[in-house]
């Protein structure tokens, strides 16, 4: 199979072997959330070796930022490019020669590839500097549930480096290598989580009439929550409510538990639906528990907001992808995903866009057999380089 045009960019081609080696080294040494000290140190070392003008560590606890100045800065423009560095608490099952060396941790979402591609782009941008302005490369910790994007924003990322626009990228399994997908508006969902404690009256399982059965309450709560999407929210809207864990206060065969704990997540694509869903989730849990004679306490958290691409920047991102891979390889109206992404915190601060890049045939994200496709590296690197040069053209 012949790949599209990105493979022919001679600025990246000489570095592909090195970029691939960096990616596989990171893959072998996965780190979780903010505990990405080895990866961050590797990134900082590489950036300094490339000749990046300024390298700052410890932004958002363990994030790394590199500042690359173009041949001229007369435009006053500054564009940020973001990659995530953290892995997942999953046991790898790929049998790769460069598989994770740490049991129970693996790069099952391709952040090793994201980091390597942005490093490769930084290398070329340092060598060529064929732009008028400043490029800021952002290497973020703790995307997988730790809100590292929020931590970097709260640490003054945008103001300190004068970032005016910001762009992100994520690989997409089973989208062909060499293709890109993007859309204006919501592209990834919000992520809310809830912890519920159901309280009844425990007792002997052979005497349920003397109890308030929390297991029955839990079963009905789980069923009732499925009515949020089907009966309480406009069917045109997108919403997911999933209960993902249930735990009683004992593991006996003959005891009705006094308490049961539930965990779950809520995903929506707008703040209005997010508000309405939170109200309904809380009401259904509380009312159902009371109906069966029990009580419910609910801890509800809004973790990641909706990832919303800005219109003009989305058009620009699609045009850059078309320059890299060809117009027929870019879907500028891809369906939004109900997964969440903490790049949303950055897009809430500055205009920008989040784009998907094809990973080819592969296991799904967060799967023990997932692996980032090294054939995508050239496309990702060229996307970043072309974006900077198009956003801040040399005069």
Account of the protein in words:
With 395 residues, the chain is α/β, with parallel strands linked by helices. It folds into two domains: 5-188 and 306-391, Zn peptidases (Aminopeptidase); 191-304, Alpha-Beta Plaits. It is built from eleven helices and 17 strands. It has helices at 16-28, 37-50, 111-128, 148-154, 157-160, 214-225, 227-232, 271-291, 311-325, 344-347, 377-391; strands spanning 54-59, 63-69, 78-84, 134-140, 165-172, 180-181, 185-189, 191-199, 203-204, 239-248, 255-256, 259-268, 295-304, 307-309, 330-331, 337-340, 352-358. The strands form four sheets. Strands 1-2-4-3-5-17-6-15 form an eight-stranded mixed sheet, sandwiched between helices. Strand 1 and strand 2 (63-69) form a beta hairpin. Helix 3 (111-128) packs across helix 11 and helix 6 runs antiparallel to helix 8 (271-291). The longest helix is centred in the last third of the chain and has 21 residues, at 271-291. The two termini are 39 Å apart. The relative contact order is 0.20.
Brief sketch in words of this structure:
The chain has 395 residues and is of the alpha/beta class.
Strand elements, count: 17
Please estimate the helix content: 25-40%
**Second-tier CATH architecture of the largest domain:** 3-Layer(aba) Sandwich
Q: What's the domain count? A: 2
The description of the largest β-sheet is: 8 strands, mixed
Low-confidence stretches: none
Shape: elongated
């Amino acid at each position: 199979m012949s790949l599209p045009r990105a493979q022919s960019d001679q600025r990246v081609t000489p570095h592909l072997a090195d970029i691939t080696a960096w990616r596989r080294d990171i893959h072998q040494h996965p780190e979780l959330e903010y505990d990405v000290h080895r990866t961050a140190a590797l990134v900082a070392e590489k950036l300094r070796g490339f000749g990046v003008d300024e390298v700052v560590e410890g932004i958002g606890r363990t994030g790394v930022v590199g500042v690359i100045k173009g041949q001229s800065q007369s435009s006053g423009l500054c564009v940020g490019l973001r990659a995530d560095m953290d892995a997942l608490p999953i046991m790898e099952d790929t049998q790769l020669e460069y598989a994770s060396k740490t049991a129970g941790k693996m790069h099952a979402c391709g952040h090793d590839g994201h980091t390597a591609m942005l490093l490769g782009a930084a290398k070329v941008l340092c060598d060529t500097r064929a732009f008028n302005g400043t490029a800021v490369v952002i290497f973020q910790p703790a995307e997988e549930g730790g809100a590292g994007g929020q931590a970097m924003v709260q640490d003054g990322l945008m103001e300190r480096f004068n970032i005016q626009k910001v762009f992100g990228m994520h690989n997409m399994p089973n989208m062909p290598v060499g293709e890109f997908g993007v859309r204006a508006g919501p592209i990834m969902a919000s992520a809310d989580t809830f912890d519920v404690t159901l309280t009844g009256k425990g007792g002997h399982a052979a005497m349920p009439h003397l109890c308030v059965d929390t297991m029955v309450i839990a079963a009905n709560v789980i069923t009732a929550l499925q009515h949020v999407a089907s009966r309480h929210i406009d069917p045109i809207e997108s919403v997911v409510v999933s209960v993902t864990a249930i735990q009683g206060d004992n593991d006996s065969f003959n005891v009705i538990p006094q308490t049961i704990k539930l965990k779950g997540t809520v995903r929506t694509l707008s703040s209005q639906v997010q508000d309405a869903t939170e109200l309904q989730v809380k009401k259904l849990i509380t009312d159902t528990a009371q109906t069966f004679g029990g009580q419910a306490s609910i801890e509800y958290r809004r973790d990641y907001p909706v990832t919303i691409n800005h219109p003009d920047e989305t058009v620009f991102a699609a045009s850059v992808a078309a320059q890299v891979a060809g117009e027929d390889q870019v879907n500028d109206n891809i369906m939004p995903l109900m997964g969440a992404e903490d790049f949303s915190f950055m897009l809430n601060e500055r205009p920008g866009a989040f784009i998907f890049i094809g990973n080819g045939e592969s296991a799904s994200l967060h799967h023990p057999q997932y692996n980032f496709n090294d054939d995508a590296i050239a496309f990702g690197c060229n996307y970043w380089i072309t974006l900077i040069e198009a956003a801040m053209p040399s005069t």
